[in-house]
Amino acid sequence: MKVTKMHALGNNYIYISEFEEKLTNYQLSDLAVQLSDVRKGIGSDGMILIGPSQRADIRMRIFNADGSEAENCGNGLRCVAKYAYEHGYVHGQTNFQIETKAGIVDATVYPDAKGYVPSVTVDMGTVQFGPEAVGFRGEADRAGRASIEVNGDIYSGYLVSVGNPHFVQFVENAKEYPVEEIGPKIEHHPSFIHRTNVEFVTPKTPYELDFRVWERGSGITFACGTGACASVAAGVAAGLLAEQVTVHLLGGDLRIEIRNGRVLMTGEAVEVFTGEVHI
Ligand SMILES: N[C@@H](CCC[C@H](N)C(=O)O)C(=O)O
């Protein structure tokens, strides 16, 4: 099977083109787990499929490293846009639509003189706040902020959906935060019906923030595009951030802009290698 490894700010996935590979004989969750395993597979944060769409120019499906299928993936969308453009799937259009389980988004690629795409903007649409949006059993305030208890400690955060669920917490120092210890406890907290992605963010000024994430189904990753969108939206709602912000993630920087309520995300997309796996 032909696969391509790509990353965006270190958030790395194995990409498979359904235009080239027939996957009907595979159990997709198992395939994602196998490929993501660094010892017995390739090693990645998960698997992403690029395929034909009835409703948009192309379709993305995203599976986390544990095999669960997610609704959306911001870093994946930028890589899918790069892949689709460079492989001629969108016939040279620099602006096109990608279908996800969370809906259809617009992507804009910026090819260089050789036709390679180093960076991409995706219009991620509007985000939703509150318990219903993320599948949270419990109360929230009018801003969509909720508290949960873990081993006697209280954690407060914004419930934000970017198609997929996020719990965004403003903390004093995201860089030093024990993400590995607290992240999984919140991901699996019984209040979150579908589990959740967990963000720990520290605004440094109204224009930039430090960001760390514990991703549902993948654990600590170097970046999370939907998480960055959710965090900036929460920061704007809290009056802490402006509408044009640079997010500092472990793997590099992402530009997030909120324009007329819509969240635009701009950042890199990188191909690492293309090869063949025998699975
Ligand atoms: N890394 C992604 C999000 C991938 C899915 C997420 N773990 C979930 O289960 O919702 C991004 O860049 O947005």
UniProtKB/TrEMBL annotation:
Gene Ontology biological process terms from the UniProt entry: lysine biosynthetic process via diaminopimelate
Chief place of localization: cytoplasm
HAMAP family according to UniProt: DAP_epimerase
Subunit structure: Homodimer.
Keywords: Amino-acid biosynthesis, Cytoplasm, Isomerase, Lysine biosynthesis
Name of the top EC class for this enzyme: isomerase
Coiled coil feature spans: none
Binding residues annotated for substrate, in chain numbering: 11, 64, 74-75, 164, 197, 215-216, 225-226
InterPro entries: DAP_epimerase_AS (IPR018510), DAP_epimerase_DapF (IPR001653)
GO cellular component terms, semicolon-separated: cytosol
One Pfam family hit: DAP_epimerase
Provenance organism: Alicyclobacillus tolerans
Pathway stated in the Swiss-Prot or TrEMBL entry: Amino-acid biosynthesis; L-lysine biosynthesis via DAP pathway; DL-2,6-diaminopimelate from LL-2,6-diaminopimelate: step 1/1
Molecular function GO terms recorded: diaminopimelate epimerase activity
Biological role: Catalyzes the stereoinversion of LL-2,6-diaminopimelate (L,L-DAP) to meso-diaminopimelate (meso-DAP), a precursor of L-lysine and an essential component of the bacterial peptidoglycan.
Catalytic activity annotation: (2S,6S)-2,6-diaminopimelate = meso-2,6-diaminopimelate
Full protein name: Diaminopimelate epimerase
Sites marked Could be important to modulate the pK values of the two catalytic cysteine residues: 166, 215
E.C. no: 5.1.1.7
Family: Belongs to the diaminopimelate epimerase family.
